[in-house]
Amino acid sequence: MIILGIDPGSVTTGYAFLDTEEKIPKVLEYGVLHAPESLPLEDRLLHIVRELEQLLDIYQPQELSMEGVFFYKNPKSALVLGHIRGAVLVACRRRGMNYSEYPPTVVKQSVTGKGSASKELVASMVFTRLGIERGSLPLDASDALAIALTHANPAPLATALVGAAGLTRKKINGLSRKKKATAKQWKDLIEKMGGTIQ
Q: What percent of the chain has a predicted confidence (pLDDT) above 90?
């Protein structure tokens, strides 16, 4: 299975493609889609989606994982981000991709074990876990890798959710066993954390 991780932004959108056939996910490509800030929003959306669609045609991922919505002090910023997320989601759904989203704290906990970790720590852990050299790309790219890695590894995600969800270790272990875990159980767990799975 190939997973696309997206860290949406109105000027710079991070992306990462992971192949999860092996035990350790293989990084196919990661980087940023950059739209000139001087362009009006609708043209930035078009620019980002066009670049993304070219990558989708190359890698043909089955899953889209994206950072979930969190609260902004500036309502206009939240609205702009909503436009970007919607454009990305439409482009991916047109190709039949499944969609999942994860709150930022869940991604940080899953990757580093700490929900308040800095972006720099997240980047360092992602590069270490995936065995790739640190790049000079913006943190949006490493955030996209972290989002894709969170989606690829439900066991670390479950562990990260223990304290935040108020669940016992026994219950989490029950969810982690293939014979007992169901899609509904995972969906309920993610929704309890503030994310959504469609």
A: 44
User: Is 67 known to be catalytic?
Assistant: yes
Neighbouring residues of 36: CB distance < 8 A, sequence distance ≥ 6: 11, 44, 47
Q: Which of 63, 101, 140, 143 is catalytic?
A: 140
Determine the pLDDT at residue 162.
43
User: What does pTM read for this prediction?
Assistant: 0.76
Measure the CA–CA gap between 88 and 126, rounded to whole angstroms. 23
Ranges of each domain in the chain? 2-192
Under CATH, what is the fold of the domain 2-192?
Nucleotidyltransferase; domain 5 (3.30.420)
Half-sphere exposure at residue 197, Cβ-oriented, CA atoms within 13 angstroms: 13
